[in-house]
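User: Here's a protein and a ligand (uracil). What would the complex look like?
Assistant: Let me lay out the input and then the predicted complex.
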Amino acid sequence: MVVINYPHDLLAEVRQRVAGRKLTGFTPGQGLLHPDLMLVGEAPGRHEEVHNIPFSGASGKELMKMVASIGYSRQTIYITSVVRQRPYSVKRVKDRQSGKIITKKPNRTPTKGEVLAFAKLFDWELGQVDPKIIVPLGNTALQRLLGPQANIGELHGQLITRPIQKATADGQGYQWTTDSYKLFPMYHPAAVLYRRKLEPTVKDDWRRLGTLLQHK
Ligand code: URA
């Protein structure tokens, strides 16, 4: 199992592009190289920022249950997300106990520009990891790979073999790869935490992925 070591030039480029944005920490992707599965989330949350382990917070616990249900673990897959720093917003709220106005920095969804700023780093990581199947978790990861029209509600729970988006050489946009990749999109585990009704669907999707891997 490895914690990925990103090239300095790509890191420097990202740092320059995101300067001044509300992004903090840096959680590298980690796991097995050349695995059956590469799980791709959105961005680290507060728990990940502190512990530096992708998907180690509340969503991560949900996710790991699903991973275990098909016989895999953190050690036998690779886990990352399309943005490697925690996006936050700044909120001034009244503290319940003291009544004082305090500043909070809750997690937020990364913007399209932030996803693009990390695109070359992600492309490099995908090349190193070289998984059999990419599992985009939720719309942010799915749209990064399959474009803005892709929708998790339509594409979850099925194997898709298609070219994916990669950053252009100047890093200002995306282009389609000439090769096709295998993807199996899933709902983001946080969606299940907010909408318990989704749980049977998500369990069924993971069961399908498990069956597919048994016949690979
Ligand atoms: N959500 C993500 O997309 N990635 C994490 O690592 C944690 C929460």
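Summary: The CA atoms of residues 10 and 121 lie 6 Å apart.
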